[in-house]
Specification:
Helix content is about 75%, strand content about 0%. The protein is elongated. By secondary structure, the chain is an all-alpha fold.
Amino acid sequence: MAIKRSLQLTSWIVLGALVGLFQEVGTILLVFPKTGAPSNRSEEFGIFAVIAILYGMGWLSTALLLSDFLFLRRGLEPREFKQYLGIVASCAVVLGLVLPGFGLMVGFPLTAIAILCAGFAFKKPPHKASGVLP
């Protein structure tokens, strides 16, 4: 049974922010340890997390919604939903690890493009009325 379309559309907004955090794990793990020891690291992490959430909602939630409206156009089955989210999250983490420190400038737009490509891959072909060619 497919996920309700309204629930699916609403979930993209929240999931875009979470995927933004996943993507910035690379920067947190690879760049922050090399920058020395500031006096208040938790404040730095907090600011960085807020920026990642805002960029995730701006770039990735928008890309997820666009992908849904342009390509998916249906409620996904739970298995498809998990696969789609796995692909998107994997792309985000890989880009975050490959481009640490460049996430805001390059990583988020590339992840948005990957989301659109994944949406295109999950697009169902149009149903044909009959097997006869016109």
